[in-house]
Amino acid sequence: MRELGRVIQPGGIALITVLGYDVWRQLPPHHRATIQQRGFLFVGFEVRHDLFPQSYQTAYHSRAYVERLCSPHFDILAYLPQGVNHHQDLVVLQKPLSPSAR
Q: What is the value of pTM for the model shown?
């Protein structure tokens, strides 16, 4: 977030997407517990390696974690659960016009 904040001009808008609750609530209980405790989870895929690299992973995030991560650098204008294709959560961020605006 610090790097994103560095490259976006004051007043600029950033759109990010995360796999939020509506996706991760379908995970096994031990994964859901990790997300609820830590706020995020990385899960590797067991897929055919001719489709994706072996290092391919998926990240799941809680809304509280996303807000905690983004708020020191951006104003959170909106958090839209399933806001992209009824799947990924959409987060609309705006960089403050000046550091003193925080």
A: 0.84
